[in-house]
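Let us begin with a simple case.
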Amino acid sequence: MGRGLPLPFKKRGGINVCSIKKLIGRKIDYSAYAFIAPVMVFFLTFVLYPMIKGVYLSLFKFRGRNITFVGLKIILIYSVMIYL
């Protein structure tokens, strides 16, 4: 009578023991990755790549065919000009 919860609901340290047993024996369902993959390809191609390329190109100074690496110097110059 006073033994507590039935076996499927027994908890040890706040973790449901039966749910852990189910997770260990469960097979992984890869169908979700099939739905996420096209979105990730779109995001990487049209959002993330142009952002990274823009940061990369901002580190150079272009004068016709002459390309000079200036690093963060140009960014610092323009940021000081904005606040003056």
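The second case is a distinct protein. As before, the sequence precedes its structure tokens.
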Amino acid sequence: MKTVAVRKQLPFSFIFEELISIRPSIKRMFGFTHVYLDETLLFSLRDSAKQPGTNGMWLYTTTEHIETLPGSFLSYRGVSSGVPERMPG
């Protein structure tokens, strides 16, 4: 029997259309689509029907910049202990 690989569509493909000029690397694992620039993990995308509460864009930053995120994004949830929480802002 011949096995055919099914390629899943990228979640939130409009984001990749905006980033094509910087040629990010894309890796999929653990239900996420991870986006790298060189060796730096920029963000991850998740679009799961089974766990919709964790869907969206997951941003990665350093601790000195974490306080600026709620004011920079309309919809922002911080993550503590792996559980998303709504952040003020």
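The chain has one domain: 13-86. The helical segments are 13-19, 69-72.
Keep these points in mind for the review questions at the end of the chapter.
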